[in-house]
Every structure is written in structure tokens, then in C-alpha cells.
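Possible regression after last week's pipeline update?

I re-ran a chain I had predicted before the update to compare outputs. Posting the input and the new output here so someone can diff against the archived version. Not blocking, just want to make sure nothing changed silently.
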Amino acid sequence: MSRISPTFAVLTAPFVVASIVASVAFLSSRATSAAFDFEFTVDSTADTADASPDGVCDDGAGACTLRAAIEEANSADGDSLIGFNIPGDGPHTVSPQSSELVPVLNNVTIDGYTQPGISVNTLNSGDGTNAVLMIEIDGSALGGTANGITMIGTNSVLKGLAINNFGGSGVRLLNATANKVAGNFIGTDVTGTSAEPNGAGVTLDDAHDSTIGTTAATDTNLISGNGVGIVITGESEMNVVRRNLIGTAADGDSPLPNTSHGILMTGGADCNTIGGIPNPYRNVIAFNGGDGIALATDGGINNYVDPNFIHDNDGLGVDINDDGPTPNDDLDVDIGANELQNYPVLTSAQTGGGINITGALNSVPHLYYNIFFLANDECDPSGYGEGERFVGETTIIVGDSGERTFDVNFFGVDASPGDFITASASNPESTSEFSQCVPVTAGPAIIHGDVRCHGKVDATDGLGVLRYVAEMSKIAQTEPCPDLGNTVDGRIFGDILCNGGIDAVDALAVLRFVAGLPPLSAGPGCPAVGSLS
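New output (post-update):
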């Protein structure tokens, strides 16, 4: 029999119930996965502050607001997740009323993709974003130069939000390290189709080792409709900007420009990377009212502009000194933003089995340089190109004279007569502006079976195939000409019978053609020996 008296039980019952409720509330603030120590779920669009930093997100009226959740997460000793579960059909708008939201400190993830009704982007890089957002942070009520979300700590993540109508920056990383901004719409409405501008979309001010977008489809940011898309300033170093849409609508194709530059680097920003050679690394930087990427006169050095999808900006694709084309100088002895790295000078671009590009780079002797080649539908009105499609790259070393010529071939690329080719040079960190563009002209077509590319099929072409099969040194070819084994327009060059590989029977097919004998059986859709490929 219980030794607790009925009177004691009655008197203590309210306390026990209250303790249970408090315990449940506290437990609900903790993460349900091992990734987080604490979890706070925003269930209100109000802008009220937290009642007290006690591990429970509560504004004193039973609501967990975004402001209150950030305050609790900042005071929590561990990794915190701020999720969303606001009742009713979305989208839901949070409007700070009297002051900016408190800055995000360390180890806080704000994840708008936890709100019911959302979906993440699944499209390929450069094809836009089909993400559906349900949480909007609207700064219309603040006016002035208020910022949206400010991150001043380390190892925090911001994703799945539409952030708009702030006079300052939609997102600001200030003295922050190793933070990530991913999968947001910044400067647009929640559909990504109309501009609701911030003064700047994202500002990195003395920010380090942070990422704006990643290579993952889910992390594609839409940063459009702002004054400037992204500002990288102060002693911001080692930041990476990848797989963002900067100046387009959500479809990645329709204009929704930032009225100034797509990206601006200023105030001594060093060692930052924009884009990358693998397709998932590249940003779309298009239709902006200024340059695609501008480095101000006080911009730093070692800022690396890998290939991106850069086109249709009102200014240059890449503009060092933010003043239009910067002339090359002999031996590249001048100094300034990105060391005023000289750009290549192109002389020709000719199609054949692929595309052959010739030119030269004059720059600092005894350094090696990455040369990136880009194709464009149109040449920029300045005569200096942008960089719409990546063609290929080569690495050169400049000798004693300070000048090195190049003659390179690329196969299976998206460039044809009527397009224009441009190039940039990196040393290998500081990247130049784009070169003057040269038109793509038509070269001689490849005849199927003519593995030497000398305009006809003869017995020597059969010998060339046999030498390849025997792994001997290749036969001399007339350039531009693919190497045997390269894939050109979906077929293996040297696979005369189109059976998926090169063997001695391919050489026999050539020799039978030369001897006037009936052809051997070939794969479906295979050109006849002696016909144009």
C-alpha cells in the first residue's frame, strides 16, 4: 500500500503536472537525430523575443518565433537546429518589426526545408532550380540598411529561406568562419520569379572558409533581383562560390538581374574561388546590370575565377579594376587587383573533328598558367568576351621571353562556326579578364576512316590503326585531328566499324576500302568508309 497521504498527493499534483510539462517541453527542444544537440521548432510568424534562455523556445505566450529560436540556439551549448512547423498553408512570412534579427553565433543550422510543403532542387547545374520554399523573411518593415540574417560565428548553416526587401544585405557573414549558405532564394519572392530586392544579396565581410552554394543540387542558391548579387569584401579569404543562379529567375534562363554587378570583390578580398571546371561547380552569372564578376581597384589577389556560365551581363564577364577592359602590359609587371593578370591573345578558332584554338600569352616568365577556353553565342559589344560555355583548358609555362604560344585541340565540345571563343589565364590563382573574342570558323571535315586527317583514306590509315592496336607510337596526323581512341560526336575515333572499340578488323575495313573490296559489316548508324563523319 502507498505511504503517500491523499492530502499530500492532492497538494503536489499541480507541481508534478507542471514538472512533466516542462520536461516534455525541454525534451522537445532537443534534436531527434545524433547530428544536433538541440532542436528548436519555429511555430509562429510573430517577431517576439524569447522569454528567457532556458533551453525552451518560448516568447512567454507559448510561441516559438524565429527571433526566439535564434536567441535560444545562440545560448545553447552544442550544435543546434532551428526547424519550422508553422501551422496552415504556406508560404509563411516572418517580418522583423523594430530591429534586425539577432546575429547567428556558432554551430546553428537554420533549415527552412523542415517546413511542411517544401521540396528541394533536383535540377542539374545551370538548369535552374525547382525548389519550393515555404518560409520568407521580409525586411520591408525595417527600412534603412537593415540586414536579414547575419552570421558572425563559426560552423553555421542557412538554407531553405526566401530573404528579401532588406536595405542592407539579405545575408551577411561578418567576421565569420566556415559557414554555409545553401538552397535559398535571396532577393526574390518565394517563387523565384519576381524581384524583391535587398541592397546586396549576400555580403561576406571579413569572412573566411565559407561556402555560398556547394556542388550539390539541393544547395543551389538563387541570388537575383538585388542591388549587387554577392559582395566579398574586407579580409575575406578562402571562400567558395559555387552552383548559384546570379541574375536569373528560378528557371536559370529568364532574366531577373541584380541591378549592379553579379559578384563584386573589394576591400582587399584574397584567395576566393568562383566556380569550377566540373559542371556542378559552376555558377550561372547572367543578365546583371553591371559586370558578371568585378574586382574593384582595392580588390585583393589570388582570386580564382574557374569556368562558370557567364553571359549577357551589361558590363564585362570579368572586369578587373571595374573600369572596362584592362590592357595587357609586356611581361605583366603591373600590380593591382588580381595582379592585373594579362589575358591570352587568341588568333584563331577552327572546327574540324573538334575545335583547334591558337594564340599566345605574354606574362611573368617562369610561371605556369592555366588557360581556360570558353564559347559564346555572341561576342560582347566591347569585343571582349564573356564565358557562356566551357570548352577546355591547357596548362603552359612561360619561358625567358615572357611569351608562350599555344595550339590546342578539343573534341566533343559545344562550339561551331558562328560562335565566338574567349579565354582567361590564371597564374594559377589570380585570374585575368576574358580575352578579346575570335569567331569560330569551319575547318576541313573528317572523312570516316581518315585517321590521319589528311583528306583521304589510304593504306597508311590502316597502318595507323594497327599501330594503335599494337600500342606503338601513333602515326603522324594533320592537326586538328583527334587521337585514336578519343570520343568525337559520340563515336570512338578509329573505330571504323562502330563496334565500341578499335581492333585489327578496323584496319582491315580500311584496307578493303582502299582495295575496292566490299565493306565489312558495321554497327548501326555507322558512316561508310570514305564518307564524311
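Follow-up from reviewer: compared with the archived run. The two ends are 97 Å apart (CA to CA). Marking as no regression found.
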